[in-house]
């Protein structure tokens, strides 16, 4: 593995454990056993490293989305599994960390995070329209409203305050329940039959 790839992987790991603001270049170099000179030969500054790290995470997420679409039995299942995947990504990074990126690294937030959300929305919008054509979702659904509502759930369910209300809940489980209720509510009888087969995935 090349040094640059090792550095990105280490930053990926650190971002999942604490705020980007608290991560230092000294820490990255020390954890990898490399000099700061080597670190700065590959990345001009911390901003570039954070940008490439988060971009790398989302590139991997896009590849996972393509695999889900290829393997899923139909568009409704693809949509559910992709949305669950999106929530897992946000949960892993943590709501507070994402807010810190927005606050302290606004350009990275706009260029990487918002761009990822836009790509995600285009993918899922396409799937929802196809699901309507296939008779799996009722025709009168406002797709844009549904997308915005699920995006709200994705971020809100990862807030720590909700976990404090019920220690038995995880952010993923809370979101999955919201997703199941929402999608089941807009599905046709044919769609409901498909969704109900996935209850174990949703509630476990």
List the helices and strands and how they pair.
Blueprint: H1 3-15, H2 25-32, H3 36-42, H4 46-71, H5 75-93, H6 95-104, H7 106-133, H8 143-156, H9 160-165, H10 171-186, H11 189-196, H12 199-203
Can you tell me about this structure?
The chain has 204 residues and is mainly alpha-helical. It has one domain (60-203): Orthogonal Bundle (Tetracycline Repressor, domain 2). The chain is 78% helix and 0% strand. The chain contains 12 helices and no strands. The protein has helices at residues 3-15, 25-32, 36-42, 46-71, 75-93, 95-104, 106-133, 143-156, 160-165, 171-186, 189-196, 199-203. α1 (3-15) crosses α4. The longest helix has 28 residues, at 106-133.
Annotated CATH topology? Tetracycline Repressor, domain 2
How many H/I helices? 12
| Spatial gap, N to C terminus | 36 Å
Any idea of the CATH class? Mainly Alpha
Share of helix among residues? over 70%
Mean pLDDT: 88
């Amino acid at each position: 593995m090349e040094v640059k790839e090792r550095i990105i992987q280490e930053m990926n790991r650190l971002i999942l454990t604490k705020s980007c603001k608290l991560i230092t270049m000294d820490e990255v170099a020390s954890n990898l056993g490399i000099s700061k000179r080597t670190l700065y030969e590959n990345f001009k500054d911390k901003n570039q490293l954070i940008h490439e790290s988060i971009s790398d995470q989302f590139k991997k997420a896009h590849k996972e989305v393509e695999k889900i679409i290829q393997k899923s039995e139909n568009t409704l299942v693809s949509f559910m599994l992709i949305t669950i995947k999106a929530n897992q990504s946000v949960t892993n990074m943590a709501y507070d960390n994402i807010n810190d990126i927005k606050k302290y690294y606004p350009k990275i937030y706009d260029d990487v995070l918002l761009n990822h959300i836009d790509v995600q929305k285009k993918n899922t919008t396409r799937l929802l329209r196809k699901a309507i054509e296939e008779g799996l979702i009722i025709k009168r659904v406002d797709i844009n409203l549904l997308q915005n509502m699920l995006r709200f759930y994705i971020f809100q369910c990862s807030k720590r305050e909700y976990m404090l209300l019920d220690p038995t809940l995880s952010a993923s489980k809370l979101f999955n329940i919201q997703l199941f209720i929402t999608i089941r509510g807009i599905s046709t009888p044919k769609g409901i039959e498909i969704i109900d087969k996935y209850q174990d995935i949703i509630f476990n």
